[in-house]
């Protein structure tokens, strides 16, 4: 990550913030956090600046393409050309399968799929125009690969994220933009812990624990870095053995 600039969408959340911190430790020059939460963004940006990184926060909802493109372009104008983007924005409530409402299906699609699509579209437009390639990492979930009776909408959307990743990866491979997804198992983020299902996930995981955000961030950063020279259109499950293919 030495000298690289990155945009982390949903970067004020548990996984995004851990990824940003690890990127700084690995030498990233500048990071733009795009997130809907002003307070959480301010906190993460302050931490990254204390670590010696040039960090900026851009606050907005990227479920629609206009703000997504505007915020991405704002990131470019503040931190310079972007080498890497990580898409961490997500919405993962649990609900019995027959009780999921129309609005919940729509929100799940908007946050989990549209945010990813909109931000990828903005990033590849920028990266292609620069002609120097790039790296994009999207966040899926083990739930895309193993059903759970209480999050059918989330699982379907995270499957869509892996599909969208492959479509973009194929289209922009000639431009040397390498695009992959990571499917984490249960992560002990603040959100995951508050939802109360981390112990259940840990018990169902062969490694016997939930992931720490840094366990997942390591894989994200490898795929986002110039050390990833040949993987594109892949999904990498980092689930402590919860799903084995
Ligand atoms: N926590 C887990 O156990 C787990 C497991 C597998 C996959 N994931 C995935 O990892 C990612 C991060 O999870 P997390 O635990 O850090 O969650 P989190 O809620 O802490 O982080 C998500 C961030 O996305 C932001 N966000 C939500 N909607 C947005 C929008 N419309 N526009 C801009 N920003 C928006 C939120 O403000 C938040 O800061 C998510 O995609 C989640 O689905 C999480």
Q: Give the cofactors and ligands.
A: nicotinamide-adenine-dinucleotide
* Major sheet summary line: 7 strands, parallel
Task: Please trace the helix and strand order, writing H or E for each element.
Answer: EHEHEHEHEHEHHHE
CATH class equals Alpha Beta
Could you walk me through the main structural features you see in this protein, from its secondary elements to its overall organization?
The chain is of the alpha/beta class and 245 residues long. It has one domain (5-238): NAD(P)-binding Rossmann-like Domain (Rossmann fold, 3-Layer(aba) Sandwich). It has 8 helices and 7 strands, in the order βαβαβαβαβαβαααβ. α4 links the parallel β4 (84-87) and β5 (134-139). The two termini are 30 Å apart. It binds nicotinamide-adenine-dinucleotide (NAD). The site of nicotinamide-adenine-dinucleotide has 27 residues, from α1, α4 and α6.
In summary, what is this structure?
By secondary structure, the protein is α/β, with parallel strands linked by helices.
């Amino acid at each position: 990550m030495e000298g690289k600039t990155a945009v982390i969408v949903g970067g004020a959340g548990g996984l995004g913030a851990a990824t940003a911190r690890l990127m700084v430790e690995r030498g990233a020059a500048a990071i733009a956090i795009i997130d809907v939460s002003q307070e959480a963004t301010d906190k993460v940006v302050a931490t990254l600046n204390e670590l010696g990184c040039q960090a900026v926060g851009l606050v907005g909802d990227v479920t629609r393409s206009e703000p997504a493109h505007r915020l991405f372009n704002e990131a470019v104008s503040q931190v310079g050309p972007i080498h890497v983007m990580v898409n961490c924005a997500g919405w993962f409530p649990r609900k019995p399968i027959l009780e999921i409402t129309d609005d919940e299906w729509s929100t799940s699609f908007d946050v989990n799929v549209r945010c990813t699509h909109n931000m990828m579209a903005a990033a590849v437009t920028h990266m292609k125009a620069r002609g120097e390639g790039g790296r994009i990492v999207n966040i899926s979930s083990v739930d895309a690969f193993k059903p759970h009776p209480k999050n059918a909408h989330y699982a379907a959307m995270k499957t869509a994220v892996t599909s969208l990743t492959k479509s973009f990866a194929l289209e922009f491979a000639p431009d040397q933009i390498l695009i992959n997804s990571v499917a984490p198992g249960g992560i002990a983020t603040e959100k995951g812990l508050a939802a109360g299902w981390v112990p259940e996930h840990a018990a169902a995981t062969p490694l016997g624990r939930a992931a720490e955000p840094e366990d997942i961030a390591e894989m994200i950063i490898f795929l986002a870095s110039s050390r990833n020279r040949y993987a594109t259109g892949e999904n990498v499950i980092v689930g402590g053995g919860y799903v084995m293919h």
